[in-house]
Amino acid sequence: MLLSHLTPFLPKRFWQNSGWLLLIAALSSCGFQLRQPNPVSFKSIQLQGNTQITSALKKSLKEQNIQLVETAEEAELQVELIHEENEKRILSLSGTGVVREYELYYRVQYRTKASNEPTWGLPLVMESRRDYTYNDSNLLAKLAEEKRLTQTMRTDVLNGIMRRLSALKKAE
Questions:
Q1: By three-state DSSP, how is residue 45 classified?
Q2: All domains of the chain, ordered by start, with CATH?
Q3: Which of 36, 61, 105, 140 could disulfide-link to 66, CB 3.0 to 4.6 Å?
Q4: What pLDDT, in 10s, does the model give residues 32-72?
């Protein structure tokens, strides 16, 4: 009864916010959680190599409370970032020879070695690819799009490396 009298006086925004609050409350009460990264089973890692993804990988490892150490003797796992490659290929041309589509590649090659293993594992490659259309009349927008795609590819590769590291099990 009281609610029907207040409806004309309450702004539309109040009702929209109330709906969002109810949705959030319902999701949290049912046990919904955002997907968390799988934990890496190693407590200390030595990270070798200097690539564009190195600082982001260090940050991800620190977020999981993994100690980054300087020497191999202190590390339970060694990770060496061997090679990083950015590549941009022409995917298609127009009839007049103007580029219409590009394909972006981002690859990181790395290898791992657990403290109890005598040799390094085989090099692993994590890569990401994206296609995008190109138009000279929208040069600034297309350059911004390329930059954004490159950043998302790096994030995808980083997440892939973290998944593979979490799949490695520590020998007891």
A1: strand
A2: 44-167 (3.30.160.150)
A3: 61
A4: 566 666 788 889 999 998 888 999 999 999 998 999 999 88
